[in-house]
Each structure stands twice: as C-alpha cells, then as structure tokens.
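so the lab meeting is tmrw and i was supposed to have these ready like two days ago... anyway. pasting both below. for each one the top line is the aa sequence and the line under it is the structure tokens. i havent really looked at them closely yet so no promises
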Amino acid sequence: MLFSYKAITKSGEERLGNIDAVNEDVAISSLQRRDLVIVSIRSADKIPIFERDITLLSRVSNKDIVILSRQIATLFEAQVSALRSFKLLAAESENRTLSRKISEVGDDLQSGMSISQALNKHPSVFSPFYVNMVRSGEESGKLSETFSYLADYMERTYELTSKVRGALAYPAFVLSIFVIIMILLMTKVVPKLADVLTGTGQELPVYTKIIIGISDFLVNYGLFLFVLLIIGGVFLWQYTKTGVISFSKFKIKLPLFGELFRKIYLARISDNMYTMLSSGIPMIKSIEISASIVGNDVYKNILLDAANSIKTGNTMSGALVGYREIPAIMIQMIKVGEETGQLANILQKLAKFYKREVDTAIETLISLIEPILMVLLGLGVGIVLAAVLIPIYNIAGGIN
C-alpha cells in the first residue's frame, strides 16, 4: 500500500514523499528508522483529488533528467556521498515531482538500497536504460563517469527530439491556422452570403451548392462533429499507446516523414547501444534495453528477435540481416566492428552519421513543406470564396 507522508528531519528540514508498506504502522516504523519525525501520514488513495499533484502540470522532462545527471556526476567527482548528493538535489530541484522522487531515492539509499535499486522504483522518471547504466556504474565503480555518460547521451537525445519537434511544429501550426480560417469562413461568412444567393431564386452552380451544404452542416452539427473528433482523438491516442504494430509500420511508411522517422530510430538504436556497450553492459542486455526504449514496435521486434538469435550463437550483424528496416550499410559497419573488436566505436560513428542524416532530412522537409502548405492554404480559401463570390458576380452582372 502506498502512503504519503509529511515529516521533519533532525536538521529541521520539511520532507514530503511516498512510501510503500504493508500498513500504516510499518510505514511509520520505516520512516522513524530514517530519523524522520512524522508530522502526518495517510494512504495515498484517501488524499482528496484537489490536494494531489497534477502530473501533467509538473512532469519531469528529459531536460530535467539531463541537468540532474550532470549535477550528480559533479557531486560524485567532488567526493560527495550518494546520500548527501540526492538530499542536496532534492532540496534544490525546482520541479516538484522530480524533487519528491529524488527525496524518495535518498530515503531508500538511507535504508540500505543501492542507487540503481532506488531509481528502479520510479520508472516514470528513470527509464530501464538509465537504471541499467547506473547499475553498470555501480558494478564497475565508475559512477561519476557513468552519470557523465548519461548526461551526454540524454543531451544528444534531447537535441535530436527538439529538432524533430521543431520540424513538425511548423506544419502543425500552419495546418491549424488553415483549419481555423476554413471554419470561420464556413460558419460566419458563407451562411450570410448563402442567404443572399438563395434569396435571388436563381439556380446555383453545383460547386456552390456543395460549399453551402458543408456550411449548413457545420453550423447545425459542428458541435457534435467537434465532440466526435475529440472522442476519436482520445481513442486514437490510447490505440497508439498500446503499441499496436500496424501504427508503427504506418509511421515509418508515411510520405515525406517516413524516412525521417526511420533515421531517428536508427540513430536512437546506435546511440543507445554505443552508450551501454561502452559502460560494460553485455550485448544481449544492451539490445533488449534498446528494444524497450526505441519507441517503435517494428524496430522493437527486430531487436528482440536479434537478441534471441544472438543467444543461439549468431553475431549482431548476422541477426540483423534480412530486415528491410535495417540498412545494409549499418549491418556492414556493425560487421566490421565485430571483426575488429571496435563495435562500440562503430556504433558511435553510426549514431553521428544518422544524426546528421536526421538534420539533413529535417532541412529538406521544411524546404518542401513550406511552399506546399502555402499553396494548399491559398487553394482551400480561394475555392471557398470563388464558389460563393462567382454566383454573386453573375447576379450583379445580370442586373446591370
């Protein structure tokens, strides 16, 4: 059972957090063993909803984890103990959710857990990749270097993700403006002009009737359509979260964007594998962890199949042969890395190569999408206005 508590340390600092325990008495005993003076404690299920943290408003971003990793590495290099480091960072963090999680990690360290075990209790913040990297650092005795590797890796990931989001934000913004303009035209402008046209009693062109019909539908049933779209969007979002492979295939086969997504996944796989192999994590474990965080079920299944093939004695390059989603150049370079004993370095070069490919693909997409969207926007608005204004012009010409 999960309990939320408020306590005070011996130094007088206030501490908020959660603790798993069989019952409240066990939770209290556990907190007292940590030298905490309990102010209040209650089951998390009984906390009123308006008192609970709203995760969406206080979520932990990749940028927060990058900063945290860099700070931990710096403190470890300065010979600050793990417990003291997490206590300091919990007090300094501006993100309430992250501060609470770090505080709980500190409490778990104080109770005797290892850092990786404590981090593993918070999968919403620390991914399996992150936890396994820390575990590897604990086993090798190079925790400060491990957190530096993590910070570098997450900075690269954050930079790549930011570029992709930036590339997708522009067309999304233009399309949103287009939809808003069309809705305003159809619901505010077209109905008034339609009254003028129908009032003349003249026969209207087919295309004008179609536009007026769409306008009437939006005016009378637009609210229902909006509600249906929201419901459909929620179902689609839930559908994608279940990891249905058909959507993953669709994503990498999209016109224009499919090639970009493929390169993103290849860059992510290469970078993940390089970082983990450099930290001493075994090959099969590295592949399985990469599969869990790659973000696409097609590549996830490829990696899991490859891991199973390697368990039977196959090489990584041999396990990846036959998959159209894995380029031949990537397989050949991995094969060279295996033959020379420089697989980690080869994967690093592949990660850099595909990152450059992503940058180039983004620049190409932006240069193509911008004029296409402008033309579509102009055509859409022009067709609607022409369908309504041409009959008005004809009526005016007939009167003259």
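ok protien two:
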Amino acid sequence: MINMFIVGVSGSPRKKATEYVLSKALSGLEEQKFETTLFTVRGKEIAPCRHCDYCLKMKECVIKDDMFEFYNLFKKADGIIMASPMHNGSISAQIKAVMDRCRALEAEDINMHKGKIGMSIAVGGDRAGGQELAIQQINTFYMLNGIIPVGGGSYGANLGAVFWSQDSVDGVKKDDYGFNTLNKTLKRFVEFLNKYRKN
C-alpha cells in the first residue's frame, strides 16, 4: 500500500467526546499503516470567513490566524475526517468556520482537493441530536470541494459515523452502536483511499 496521509479535524471547542472518538478513528488508521494527524479547533484562533474576496485576487486568505496550520495539512492530505459535536442540532460554529475559510484554498487552486476521500463523524449529547443533518452538511462541503464523501454503507451506517455521548467521554465509550457505525465507515474509507488515491 502506498503511504497516505489522513487529517482528522475535531470541530469541538472542548477536549471531550468528539475528540476522543476522532482520536480512536485515527489510531485505527495508524494500525493499518496510514500516516495521520489530529487538527483540533480547541484552543485555536480561527475567525469566520469575511467573504471579502481578497483570496480571489491574492490567492491567500487575508485573515492571518491558526487556519494556516490547517491549510498546510489539508493541502497534503489524501483523506480527511471531519468530526463535529452537535450544537443546536447542527455542526459547531468552529468547524463551519474551518469549512468556510477553505474558500481561500479553492481560490488558490480550484482542483486542489479533487479526488481526496472524506468521511464524517457526528457526536450528540442526545441520541437524536441532529447527527445525520450534521453529516449531510459535512458531506456537502466535501462535494463542493471535489472531495469524495464516504459513508458506512447500508444496514447500520448509511451516511457516516454517529455517536450518542450523553455529554461525556464515559458516555460515548459505552455507545457500541456508535462504534459499529465508525468501524463500518472506516472500512469503506480505507477501501476508497486504496482504490482512488494510488496515483
């Protein structure tokens, strides 16, 4: 297998369930000889996109903050895993800011992410806290940027990995159903990486 680089993005401002689940996913990939790195919004300064069009003219973002760390990782990535907690039934404001600020990378090279593989993880304090809607929003980001979104397939993990944390790391550790969706989605993620990212 060709060595491939996976970036995991934790969209939680807290070091709790979302970051825990994503770290477990990345550890599983490392066991399969993928190179991985965790980028977390926690403790970072990432301003929202101003939609000022500076990047269209200058081919870089006008806002000089911690997003540039992510830019460097994202450019190199063969695959990306975005994980978000549920905030008001949707993705967190922090991971939305990351998505919106990627406009600058598209302005630099509209085909920069074409053919990368993407998967999604959504973690809610409630079992039905908006996880599928959040995954759809992440997958929409992938499609708009030429990234191939991967779900876990029929019978248990259709769109991606979904977790019920009960608002704690201990709660998410007990979510066997959630880890089943994660394992199914990771399996297909690896299949797609091996099939489409060889060249």
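from a quick look at the 2nd one: The first strand starts at residue 5 and ends at 10. The mean pLDDT is 95. will dig more after coffe
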